[in-house]
Structure to design on (512 residues):
């Protein structure tokens, strides 16, 4: 009995030790199996293989990675090579990859999705957002907003945004409207978090501009830095940007990211 | 016909009493239930995951049951010499083979139906309504399993269960890879091209029965494609059963 207890304690101790050692070692970048290899062994269950690959992509994205998410594009492409009609990975790639510095990958994936997948307004919609925000390519953004609006199942607010996009009275207001519609229409927590972060980011810029105008009315000049707004008791604290950026007010009173 | 039905009924009873069949069926049902969890971590693509993996689960566990039961079906009667008792009565080898096929086919269809009811209930509960397309895919799957049952019976007339299982698994992989093999062979040498054509037409092309990948996207092939797949399955099964009959007749019974 004592030997049994000692052996059990030894098993638990070695498990705790090996878990601790695993946490300290760097996680290797995973191998993404090419779709052609999977097709040889999947017994015709391409969709199921694509779904399992998609679940692996989500786990890869959701876990801390030492490789700067270098394999995310490969994961998404492999998923859609196995099941070209699976629409969501295309949309996910279109909206997430630009934030990882892979805007061109996002555009290529989204265009592939528009050509091959089941009709899904999210793919052209997120592609339009990428062109608008990451490429400042307003012509392509307008085109793909229109494609999204004409796709079956597009919500009314997406159609409204597409219709108003060409007038563009204020790009920041457009951006807030776009991200608000993405937040409201998505069931994906990852995308909702990203949308919320963008909305907060743009709202902070609006708040800083209003505060800067108030500062100018008081002192005759725009503040040299954001902390001056706190000193002047116009703001209680410097707002914290969800992306970690810091801000400045330019000579025209516009709030910008401090690059 | 009376002999065929009697053998079929007996085979059905025998297979249904096998406890390992129930274990495999329970694992199959647990797998189908687990697709609910997998769907929940798919970032909003629950229904697609449930349908794809559910249909895959019905197929794989149906295959496991088929191969497990079919590859030992006749072999154990040959080894146990109980086959002598059957042939001492006025029962021909063809009646025996057909009876075994129908009995095992009924058992496999019953297990597929049980898993299908669970699958359809989960899809409906998740807001997918009644999955007519999935049902069509399961229908073609049953035809594919009929071909496999015939092959398993053929192997069991001359081979041990282990070897029969290996042959069945090999044919499973080849059967699903035939279109791909032919596609690559067309770019190769003439000799390999004709070899690929030969195996493409001789070995069972299991991709003909595969509607799973398109059914989930709400697509079905046209009537002519379905008719030709059904005709292919029926004729291929008859040919395999005829070869099994010949193989059994050659046994020293």
């Amino acid at each position: 009995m004592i030997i049994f207890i000692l052996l059990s304690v030894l098993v638990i101790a070695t498990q705790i030790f090996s878990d601790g050692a695993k946490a300290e070692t760097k996680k290797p970048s995973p191998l993404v199996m090419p779709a052609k290899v999977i097709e040889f062994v999947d017994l015709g269950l391409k969709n199921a293989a694509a779904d399992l690959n998609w679940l692996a992509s989500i786990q890869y994205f959701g876990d801390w990675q030492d490789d700067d998410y270098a394999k995310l594009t490969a994961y998404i492409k492999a998923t859609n090579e196995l099941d070209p009609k699976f629409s969501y990975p295309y949309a996910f790639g279109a909206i997430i990859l630009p934030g990882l510095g892979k805007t061109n990958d996002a555009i290529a994936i989204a265009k592939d999705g528009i050509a091959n997948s089941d009709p899904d307004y999210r793919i052209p919609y997120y592609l339009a957002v990428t062109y608008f925000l990451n490429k400042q390519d307003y012509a392509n953004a307008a085109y793909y907003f229109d494609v999204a609006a004409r796709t079956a199942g597009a919500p009314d607010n997406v159609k409204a945004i597409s219709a108003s996009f060409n007038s563009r009275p204020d790009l920041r207001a457009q951006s807030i409207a776009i991200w608000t519609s993405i937040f409201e229409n998505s069931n994906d927590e990852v995308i909702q978090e990203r949308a919320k972060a963008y909305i907060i980011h743009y709202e902070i810029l609006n708040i800083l501009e209003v505060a800067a105008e108030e500062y100018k009315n008081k002192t005759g000049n725009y503040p040299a830095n954001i902390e001056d707004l706190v000193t002047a008791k116009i703001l209680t604290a410097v707002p914290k940007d969800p992306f970690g950026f810091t801000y400045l007010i330019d000579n025209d009173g516009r709030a910008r990211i401090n690059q | 016909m009376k002999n065929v039905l009697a053998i079929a009924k007996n085979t059905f009873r025998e297979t249904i009493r096998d406890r390992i069949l129930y274990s495999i069926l329970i694992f199959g049902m647990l797998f189908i239930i687990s697709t609910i969890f997998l769907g929940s971590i798919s970032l909003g693509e629950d229904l697609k995951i449930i349908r794809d993996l559910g249909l895959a689960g019905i197929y794989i566990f149906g295959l496991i049951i088929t191969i497990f039961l079919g590859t030992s079906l006749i072999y154990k009667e040959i080894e146990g010499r109980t086959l002598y008792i059957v042939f001492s009565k006025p029962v021909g080898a063809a009646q025996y083979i057909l009876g075994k096929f129908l009995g095992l086919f009924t058992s496999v269809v019953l297990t597929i139906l049980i898993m299908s009811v669970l699958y359809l209930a989960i899809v409906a509960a998740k807001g997918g309504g009644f999955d007519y397309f999935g049902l069509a895919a399961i229908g073609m799957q049953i035809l594919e399993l009929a071909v496999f049952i015939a092959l398993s019976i053929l192997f069991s007339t001359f081979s041990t269960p282990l070897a029969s299982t290996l042959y069945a698994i090999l044919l499973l992989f080849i059967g699903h890879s035939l279109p791909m093999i032919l596609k690559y062979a067309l770019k190769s040498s003439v000799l390999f091209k004709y070899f690929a054509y030969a195996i493409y037409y001789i070995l069972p092309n299991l991709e003909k029965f595969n509607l799973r990948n398109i059914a989930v996207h709400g697509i079905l092939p046209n009537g002519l494609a379905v008719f030709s797949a059904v005709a292919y399955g029926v004729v291929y099964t008859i040919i395999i059963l005829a070869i099994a009959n010949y193989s059994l007749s050659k046994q020293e019974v």
User: Anything to note?
Assistant: Chain B has one domain: 2-249. The longest helix of chain B spans residues 93-128. Residues 2-249 of chain B form one domain.
